[in-house]
Design goal:
The protein has about 600 residues and is α+β, with helices and mostly antiparallel strands. The chain has 13 helices and 17 strands.
Length: about 600
């Protein structure tokens, strides 16, 4: 355990050290990569801007030498032809706007004369590009358009006649190529003038603010020139000159309170006095660091898990080798004990099987005893049912002797025929009793005709029921249904229920008992009901030794429940609509019946 803890502590310390080292290296690599990418991007952007401006830089001088412009400014002015000429030049050169200004700064004609933002009629005397051209210089100027509110770079040249400046030709160039070029870049850019004012940016919140903290005089000069409309000029840094912003990390104010750090690269454009800054949030580098750390930690964790697995395997093998010798000894001891336990278990199983056999035998004896007890209860009615035909036989025999003495053979034959019928009746009664009283062998085989079993059970107790003034109402069935139960045992259940019902109706003024067979899809339901007082405790009625009779044992319904459940059926009790009890026997139909 001590070695394991020491190795775990060493692995944790090594992981922390390696994670810190990986983070430092990854941060340096990420910042270098981002800086190189920014440098490439802003270099490409500067080249694009330079090429775009270079393409238009000489055009104002060339176009200003066109004699038609001199005629336009000296002869009576024709605005339509002048506008048309400027429009054709603008379409050919793909410039933003080309317009003509007289020596007072008033715009006489423009290529956008047909548009709502036409420059015609507007005075641009205050613009530096006009003042430069009138001073016999080529003008260059970047500003936000007063009319169009679009940024553009202005090139201007004077229109001379005999050395005198008659007016100025101006070409405005749209630098939208900047935005098109940067559309697919993941970093941001800022283009600033010599005062540090941001006039192009991929982030609108930086636009027309300054990378420098400007003094009030410079701020007012920029506002008065209307070069950028009405700029906010919020200082984005604490620097006072652009040289202080050449460090690889640049802190920019995102809003009035937030400061965000960026990886920065700059590229100067001294020919036009601009400087391009490429910036990318430091969080991008930290994302790379985080990914590198996660990858390293996963890799290191896998190595640690592999090492731990090897160590555990090695330790386990050592433990197993020590345990094997102990287990061999224990196995020998346990084997001896198990053999002894197996012998005891086999003896216990034999005793259990013997007990089960004895229990089954006792159950069969109990069922047989219940049948004999039932026959004992019915003995008086059975004796009466047999004595009546015997008395009639004696009477018919005596009459036959008298008729024989008189020689009246016809009456003798009739009496003998009646004696035979009565003898067959006695024989049938005794046969039913013998079948009912026969002891079963314990098997659950046999099928039963429901209607025959019900009639047989009623015939056995009918004499007793008639003596008590009870007539059993048996509802007929449409078919002779065959159920999966032994006929004698079904008769025993029905007889028991009829006997119990008769005892419950002993003092009833108008006793009634009914049997209703109901066929279902896979089983047969037999309802045995009476109009007595019902069952006091339906939950306990099937419990052994529970009885409401003073001399009863409380086993009849318990035995009935056991018999019907052995054949896959069920028995329950409920309250009948007549007020008495209703027993429900549910017995499975034979497979042939359910086909």
């Amino acid at each position: 355990m001590t070695i394991k803890r020491s190795l775990t502590g060493f692995a944790v310390l090594l992981g922390v050290f390696m994670t810190a080292l990986i983070g430092i290296v990854a941060y340096q690599q990420a910042t270098n990569h981002i800086a190189n990418r920014l440098n490439q991007d802003i270099t490409q952007l500067s080249e694009t801007l330079s090429n775009e401006l270079e393409r238009f830089s000489q055009l104002p001088v060339l176009l200003a030498s066109d004699p038609r412009l001199q005629r336009f400014l000296t002869a009576p002015f024709n605005p339509s032809s002048t506008n048309e000429l400027l429009y054709k030049w603008q379409q050919t050169l793909e410039a933003d706007v080309i317009y003509l200004i007289d020596h007072n700064g008033l715009t006489l004609a423009a290529s956008n004369s047909r548009e709502d933002t036409s420059f015609v009629g507007h005075n641009f005397q205050f613009r530096p590009y006009f003042q430069q051209a009138m001073s016999d210089e080529r003008g260059q100027y970047f500003a936000l358009g007063i009319q169009s509110n679009r940024r553009g770079y202005y090139f201007s040249a004077p229109i001379r006649r005999q050395g005198v400046a008659l007016g100025v030709l101006v070409i405005k160039v749209d630098l939208s190529a900047v935005e098109e070029l940067w559309r697919y870049q993941t970093s941001d850019y800022l283009i600033v003038d010599q005062n540090g004012v941001v006039f192009y940016s991929s982030k609108p919140e930086y636009l027309y603010h300054s990378l420098l903290t400007l003094d009030e005089t410079t701020k007012q000069s920029i506002i008065d020139s209307r070069q950028y409309g009405r700029p906010g000029l919020l200082p984005l840094t604490q620097a006072t000159h652009l040289d202080a912003l050449q460090s690889p990390l640049l802190a920019l104010r995102d809003n009035e309170s937030g400061i965000s750090r960026h990886i920065s690269q700059s590229f100067p454009m001294p020919q036009i006095g601009w400087q391009i800054f490429g910036v990318s949030p430091v969080t991008n580098a930290w994302q790379v660091v985080g990914q590198a750390i996660v990858i390293f930690m996963v890799f290191y964790l896998l190595i640690c898990l592999a090492a731990a697995s090897w160590f555990e395997t090695y330790s386990t093998k050592q433990k197993l080798s020590r345990l094997n010798s102990r287990l061999e000894h224990l196995v020998r001891e346990r084997t001896d004990k198990l053999q002894l336990s197996n012998q005891q278990l086999r003896e216990t199983l034999r005793q259990y099987e013997h007990s089960q056999h004895a229990l089954k035998q006792t159950e069969r004896e109990l069922i047989q005893a219940a049948k004999l007890a039932m026959l004992g209860e019915l003995s008086a009615s059975i004796n009466h049912e047999i004595n009546q035909p015997l008395a009639a036989i004696r009477t018919y025999a005596e009459n036959a002797q008298r008729f024989l003495d008189k020689g009246n053979l016809n009456h003798v034959g009739n009496n003998l025929a009646q004696i035979v019928e009565l003898n067959e009746m006695i024989t049938e009664i005794i046969a039913r009793l013998k079948v009912f009283a026969r002891k079963q062998d314990g098997s659950h085989q046999g099928l039963c005709d429901v209607e025959s079993a019900l009639h047989s059970a009623i015939s056995i107790v009918n004499a007793r029921l008639l003596k008590a003034g009870i007539v059993v109402k048996l509802d007929a069935t449409d078919t002779r249904d065959i159920v999966n139960i032994d006929a004698v045992q079904l008769e025993q259940i029905i007889i028991n229920l009829l006997t119990n019902a008769a005892q419950a109706l002993a003092s009833h003024p108008s006793p009634r008992i009914g049997i209703t067979p109901i066929r279902h899809q896979d089983w047969m339901e037999i309802q045995v009901w009476d109009n007595g007082d019902g069952v006091e405790n339906p939950r306990q009625i099937f419990d052994p030794f529970y009885t409401s009779k003073p001399d009863g044992l409380g086993l009849g319904l318990t035995i009935s429940k056991r018999i019907i459940e052995d054949f896959g059926g069920a028995i329950s009790v409920s309250q009948h609509t007549s007020g008495g009890a209703c027993f429900h026997l549910r017995i499975p139909l034979s497979k042939e019946e359910t086909r």
